[in-house]
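To whoever is covering the structure queue this week,

Two jobs came back overnight. Logging them here so there's a record in the thread.

Job A:
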Amino acid sequence: MMWRQGLAMLKRSYRVQESLVRYWAQQAQEMYGVIGDDSMQPQLEAVEQALAAMQGDRRVIVMGGAGCGKTSLLSYVSGLPVMRGGKRSASPYLRWRYGNDDGDTRHSCFLPLPELQGIEFVDTGDCAEEEVQQELLRLLPGSDAAVVVVDARSGGESPAWDVLQQLPVNGVANVLVALTFTDKIPAQEALELSARIREMCREKLRLVVMVCNVCPTSDQGVEMFVTRVQETLDSPEGARRAIRNALEATGRLMTRQSGIINARTAAMKDESGFLSGIESEINTFLSHQLDGVDECAADFSSVPLSVLPQLKRMLRRSFGGFLSPVALLQLEDMGAGAESSYYRLVCKAIMDRQRQSDERFVASCQAHWRSVRPRMKEAIECEISDFPQDVLEAELNRLRRQLEHELYQPFTRLRIRTALDSAFTEHVGWMHAAHVLLCLCLVLAGVLGYLGMTTPALWAMCGVLAVWGAGALLHRGALRRLNEEFTREAKGLDSAMQGEMPRLVRELVVSRVGAYRSLYAVASARVREYVEKLRPLQERHNAILRELRTTAPRI
């Protein structure tokens, strides 16, 4: 049929324009990702909403009273049998369309006609019914065209006029009147009726309408009716309205992007001055940190002597308070164990203090970052992320591990393990002899007691006690000498720390400020990226804007 070709031409007409606008709108959306500025979010959302509205089917609502020929007219136009009976009573309206993309099957009848893809006809029930009126008041504001079907035999009366009067001004895009059954009245009367309907719409509804004489059961007027529907859809307030809205929303997004690009272009001319200012602030921050190096180094250097009492308590637990075979068996390993315990105590005390210092450092860096972020945004239109605390803390952990490794160097240079090994092993001889003598006395006392020589056996037991007592006194003297050896080694370590700590603390301070300085490398790289991309970005933006301006006059 000719009307099918007409619908296909209509679809091609505005679908091509939709494709052009959608393509360039998507290009503008991609520009948002390249520019990376959240201030464009409202314009971006407006473009997305406009594209979603443009994507939907063009809706034509057919409304009128009972028996005026609405369904018959649509059925004849589509070439499909008339939908009758329960379908109509089950729902106040029925959507005739090509595909189902919203899951609405209760109100839909799907037509396997590719020519109707993108166009939706809504066939309503009797407009005199309250339920139908409520649905029409909901559907009409979002429609592209409304066809009021009027039975010519009724003299132009239709409950559809009451529905249209309830809508606000411009509540429906376009209204077309299909005057049916004009073959049942004289031709002159049909002309006069058409004129009265147009006049009534101008006066009461403030609408300018076209009136088509259509016979819903024959070819009479059907081709003209399809042509009028095409013209109504293709009008500026029909299908092109959504295209125009998408075009205008894209234009606003492009205008916002143009402002951001121009601001960045101007800011890039003096960006080095801003970044140099940040570098100066970090250098000042470093100077303040270095002012506390001597105090921190002195605090760290005092640790070897401050943990000495704790180390001596550990020695008393390991060496024991009296002569015992357990201490003799562990003497050869006690030097290495004591040195390891001493190192762990020194490291723990220094690391605890350094961790507290690092926490204060991170808080200072975070405060400075928060002050730089809005200034950078204002000065060079560069948005940096939230303070990367996890990155800085990971680097500070690495620096603490490095310091912990450096702390072992004085232990190695002073040969503390060798000195402690010697201090412990020099007691092996007398302790071994004392244990042997104790064993001999115990054996002798046992043998004499077995032989019934009670008195000699008691003297042998007294010898055991005397040997054990002498060994205990020697053990206490050995413990005192070991404590003195620990004190000498602690003093030597304290002197070594006083010579090493200023250098280690200075290097640590410089390294952790350098770690904070490196966080701005991302911002500097972003600025360089802006400089490199600004020209192609400007060229691409101008190309998209030029295409949009070329497309606008056709809509």
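Job B:
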Amino acid sequence: MKTGGVPAPIRAAEALRKKLAKIGLYSEADLLLHLPLRYEDETRLTLVERALGGEPVQLELTVVHSEVQFRPRRQLVARAADASGEITLRFLNFYPSQQAMLAEGARIRVFGEARGGFFGLEMVHPRWRQVAPGEPLPAALTPVYPTTAGVGNATLQKLIGAALAEAELTNALADTLPDDLRQRLKLAGFARSLRFLHTPPPDADRDALEARQHPAWRRLKFDEVLAQQLSLRRAYLARRDQGAPELHPQDDLAARLLASLPFGLTGAQQRATMEISNDLARPYPMQRLLQGDVGAGKTIVAALAACQAISAGWQAAFMAPTEILAEQHYLKLRDWLEPLGVRVAWLSGSLKGKVKRAQLAAAASEAQLVVGTHALIQEGVDFARLGLAIVDEQHRFGVAQRLALRQKGENPHQLMMSATPIPRTLAMSYYADLDVTVLDELPPGRTPVKTRLVADNRRADVVGFVKKHVEEGRQAYWVCPLIEESEALQLQTAEETFAQLQADLPELRIGLVHGRLKADDKQAAMAAFAAGDIDVLVATTVIEVGVDVPNASLMVIEHAERFGLSQLHQLRGRVGRGRYESSCVLIYAGPLGETARQRLKIIFEHSDGFEIARRDLQLRGPGEFVGARQSGVPLLRYADLDRDADLVEQAREIAEEMLTRHPALATAHLRRWLGSREELLKS
């Protein structure tokens, strides 16, 4: 269990080891870092006469009488006393052996909350054990650990106590932070901090401990964040050892594209294009995340990156998570690039027969840009010379899927894009293995979207609002969370809403699009809406990203309380793309739970995607927020990205220094915190 060696497995019966594995405990080192949730004070005794105070107390008692009672239900009832008074102890679940141990005259210590009962003071199901007269009290607060079924707190206390004792003997608590760094950061020593958290003295500040604000907690949280930073930074540096094509443009394709567009680049787009261009010319693979709010103009930045790859004699691939979004990208990129002489190919799961074979042949030969869905990474798809892989809405893809696209070429450069803004602390921690570019400026002409909250008993008002809106020459989306009826979730469905709106608004042209439609039908519905042949498009969240219809200036979202903040923000971003005043109406069904109420309040009050993302992180935590991107990335158990942002910044800085000046200590630190799990990060 030395910090520099392989962590020793937990010495326990096989059945217990399997249960411990459910809470991530595989080795003695894991036990050491399994930290308490809270503490109980068993270092002192309270007299019965002072037990009633609303706080758990420890009493030392002698059993006066015990019996099994059957009313109102079977229970073991014991009366016990000390010199100051008597208390009733009730046990609703018990074994015959416990009944025998609670016989008259037994000396016991009980821990629990006393309350006034019908027959006087009582405790229900206290923790208890027999003790000998004069048995000493514990010298430290009692830790309460996260547990799992079949593993009690007492078992964990015993295992962790043994692991601590063993670690002291084998020097496994040696500090992995050099003294000069630790002193510069004003952090306590590792061994001292760990011992303190497992066995705090009676006079320890319990509020600071349980709020994780104690200096001992600060040290452990810093170490956890540092392990994450070291691991991701090592992965980042390891990629620099891999060769990649140096994409130096040989013609003016990018300049010709810019000259052909009816708009100019924003300052943010120009900066992003320059950063990406510099990366593509380097001899190691780019791994850059391009993030920006809805409508920030990521597609043209990606197109210019593709132009650089094509100008250098290589291919670019552009992968998007849904067929609707991928096809929108294909049509836009084809319209931009084919007039400039670029061959653009299209691949999706819905292509069949000769058409599919022709597109596969093009990807393997003359196509310079290949756009598609997951179909791009399937077997049988070959690229002639893939130099750049672009992944849109990257959080929708898992690590393995992005890796599969990269493996279609020989270490191509990779540009990942996200319209879900990532809070700064999250970007610094979970995305530390990537270079991050932020488009923090919207193109001119984007109009602010007014957001309205409407209870579902006012749907008729919303229908009237839609009618008035269309009569003024505009178009509207109406989004529903389900396609067809579900008994479990009695929500308004897309098909029902489509039929109802046709009945309520017979003079309007109503369309329907959802994920289960055939590809041709989806394409026809979207094309008709874009052409202005449909007034109101009823849809599921397939239109969440990428759809761009400037004349659509009203978004109605049914059962908005069922959507996440990111989805609500993305959907709202489908409107406000033209010169007309735009609105987003959120219809909700009461009563609202607290989380749903908070989400709707946030989306109503804020339009900035980064602020919404920051609030979303506070509500949901990082594990849910980052989604499939994080397959293999260790979630933070102890550090809080919002409250401990300063630790993330410090750890980022120190990780670089550790890897450069103290590589052996960096390895020891990673082994302590991640063990063999660091292997998961290498993809």
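Note for Job B: The longest strand covers residues 57-69.

Please reply-all if you pick these up so we don't duplicate work.
Q.
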